[in-house]
Amino acid sequence: MSDITFYDFDGVRVLAIARPRRSNALTCETIRELSDALSDAEATESINAAVISGKEDRFSGGADLDDLNGTIDDLLFDDELGLLTEQIQKSSLRIAAAVEGVCFGAAIDLAWACDMQVVSTTARFALPAVQIGILYNPISLARLHARIGSFLLRRLLILGEEVSGDDLGAAGVADAVAPGSAVQAAVDRLTGGPAASDALRTTKAVLASLDVGDFDPESWQQRRGELLASPGRSEVLQATKLRVKRNL
């Protein structure tokens, strides 16, 4: 049985981590299955966006400790999760995380790799790396520092606090919604937005590079020129002009 289930709604594919007996904890196999599910969504012409969620009113308890052994071998988990978060950040799809219940450890990394975070006001967030005696993945820390800010990240890591979806909504780093409504709210936000495209994929990649501090303006300017010179670009521009005129 797959660790990932899905259904489609109006151009949005809703993917759910389905390991409720393990609090939807992430194994390397679960991560690979989610990666494959996202690839399939990207290859489906009718799909323009995706929502990542969890079964039974919980997002994920983070890394499945039964999949780890407390040695350097555990870096394999970091590698697998890193590949998935990179895929999300460079995907041609708009991707939202819909968080109910617990979102601990590596699940926070997964959620904030997405383009948008919709969280229940009662969702619970914790990042217990220091308590278990490890340094969290520095690349992930750079992204989280950029996206949720130093204050919240220090509360989670250094103080070992648990914060709520309500806290994150008040801080402006997530959209906080009523309990039980995160998935539908995420779908509603994604419905009818820009279609999957190279421009969307490239824009997401630029923003990801800014998050982790490896932004190279010259290379991205070159990529911009390639997009401007791509076949069919003038037709897209003309269609956009007509749409703008109709809306004025």
Structural account:
The protein is an alpha/beta fold and 248 residues long. The protein has helices at residues 28-42, 75-90, 106-111, 138-148, 150-157, 165-171, 182-190, 198-212, 217-228, 233-247, and strands spanning 4-9, 12-17, 49-54, 94-99, 102-104, 116-120, 124-126, 163-164, 175-177. It is globular, with a radius of gyration of 19 Å. The chain starts with a strand and ends with a helix. 35% of the residues are buried.
Keywords:
248 residues; alpha/beta; 2-enoyl-CoA Hydratase, Chain A, domain 1
Topology:
Blueprint: E1 4-9, E2 12-17, H1 28-42, E3 49-54, H2 75-90, E4 94-99, E5 102-104, H3 106-111, E6 116-120, E7 124-126, H4 138-148, H5 150-157, E8 163-164, H6 165-171, E9 175-177, H7 182-190, H8 198-212, H9 217-228, H10 233-247
Parallel strand pairs: 2-3, 3-4, 4-6, 5-7, 6-9
Antiparallel strand pairs: 1-2, 7-8
Helix pairs in contact: 1-2, 4-5
Average pLDDT score: 91
User: In angstroms, what is the radius of gyration?
Assistant: 19 Å
Structural class: alpha/beta
Number of domains: 2
Main sheet: strands, sense, barrel:
6 strands, mixed
* Low-confidence runs: none
* Bulk shape: globular
* Fraction of residues in β-strands: 15-25%
Largest sheet, spatial ordering of strands: 1-2-3-4-6-9
Q: Span between N and C termini? A: 51 Å
Briefly characterize the structure.
The chain contains ten helices and nine strands.
